[in-house]
């Protein structure tokens, strides 16, 4: 009974990854025109990665649809699925990290969507209120485990920590785990803006502006890893300046193209922006906009 629904929702998530990949230009990121600031990634590699994740996206949805225990127990279940999904991704990409962050977020969002739809059978498309309800489930699913993760970071040997974990210790930056524990507040800010833009203009223009918005707001570990805190803050500042200019569609595209060249020259990549673009494409499809 749940198979068609889980396939339908998983297909939207996989398509969201492809929409994000195809959006062009995207500063420092792989798109249809170039490989951004990545020497080891290209357009076909991201397609392979997206296809490798699809079966696991379906498993995330089914985990939520079939779950009857605590929401914390649901997190432990999807975390196990996520480990297998990550292995499949790395196998498809020969060890290159294309979608690790997106896989983490989709594990939570898709399982939350399945759990929500189990208790609230709906016909598609869903409403903006439904999307909000799905996001509000996520802290109950993962915040307890995220807090444990942060506590463990504080007791670990620094030599064994990942770069993101070191950023937490040094600057209090919680990255995507903090977003998840808070129910993705950045998405909750972005989605109303996207809905408005899609009602008054093209999808390309809406997501181009979303790209700049995300570069101005996302706590981007990838940018910090490549350039440091000051560089990340500078990217945010320049993106906010672009947003404040109320650029036309053509001017927005030109700004993105110019900034793409700038970030490529500096070898900088806002990978966090790419992940949030994919998540927003998912919800916008869920609501029937695309």
Automatic annotation (TrEMBL):
<dbReference type="GO" id="GO:0005524">
    <property type="term" value="F:ATP binding"/>
</dbReference>
<dbReference type="InterPro" id="IPR017551">
    <property type="entry name" value="TriPribosyl-deP-CoA_syn_CitG"/>
</dbReference>
<dbReference type="GO" id="GO:0046917">
    <property type="term" value="F:triphosphoribosyl-dephospho-CoA synthase activity"/>
</dbReference>
<keyword id="KW-0547">Nucleotide-binding</keyword>
<keyword id="KW-0067">ATP-binding</keyword>
<keyword id="KW-0808">Transferase</keyword>
<dbReference type="GO" id="GO:0016757">
    <property type="term" value="F:glycosyltransferase activity"/>
</dbReference>
<dbReference type="Pfam" id="PF01874">
    <property type="entry name" value="CitG"/>
</dbReference>
<comment type="similarity">
    <text>Belongs to the CitG/MdcB family.</text>
</comment>
<dbReference type="InterPro" id="IPR002736">
    <property type="entry name" value="CitG"/>
</dbReference>
<keyword id="KW-0328">Glycosyltransferase</keyword>
<dbReference type="GO" id="GO:0051191">
    <property type="term" value="P:prosthetic group biosynthetic process"/>
</dbReference>
<protein>
    <recommendedName>
        <fullName>Probable 2-(5''-triphosphoribosyl)-3'-dephosphocoenzyme-A synthase</fullName>
        <ecNumber>2.4.2.52</ecNumber>
    </recommendedName>
</protein>
């Amino acid at each position: 009974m749940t198979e068609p629904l889980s396939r339908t929702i998983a297909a939207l998530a996989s398509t969201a990854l492809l929409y994000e990949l195809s959006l062009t230009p995207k500063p420092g990121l792989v798109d249809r025109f170039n490989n951004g600031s990545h020497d080891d990634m290209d357009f076909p590699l991201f397609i392979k990665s997206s296809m490798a994740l699809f079966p696991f996206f379906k498993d995330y949805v089914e985990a939520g649809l079939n779950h009857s225990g605590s929401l914390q127990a649901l997190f432990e279940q999807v975390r196990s699925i996520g480990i297998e999904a990550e292995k499949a991704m790395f196998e498809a990409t020969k060890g290159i990290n294309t979608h690790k962050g997106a896989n983490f977020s989709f594990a939570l969002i898709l399982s939350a969507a399945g759990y929500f739809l189990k208790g609230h059978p709906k016909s598609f498309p869903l409403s903006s209120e439904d999307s909000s309800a799905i996001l509000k489930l996520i802290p109950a699913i993962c915040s307890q485990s995220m807090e444990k993760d942060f506590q463990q970071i504080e007791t670990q040997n620094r030599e064994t920590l990942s770069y993101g974990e070191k950023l937490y210790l040094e600057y209090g930056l919680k990255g995507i785990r903090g977003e998840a524990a808070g129910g993705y507040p950045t998405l909750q800010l972005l989605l109303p803006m996207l809905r408005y833009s899609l009602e008054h203009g093209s999808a390309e223009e809406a997501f181009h502006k979303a790209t700049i918005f995300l570069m101005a707001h996302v706590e981007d570990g990838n940018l910090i890893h490549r350039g440091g805190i000051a560089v990340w803050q500078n990217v945010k500042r320049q993106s906010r300046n672009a947003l404040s200019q109320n650029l036309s569609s053509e001017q927005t595209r030109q700004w993105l193209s110019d900034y793409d060249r700038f970030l490529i020259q500096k070898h900088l990549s806002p990978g966090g922006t790419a992940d949030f673009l994919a998540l927003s494409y998912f919800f916008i499809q869920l609501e029937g906009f695309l």
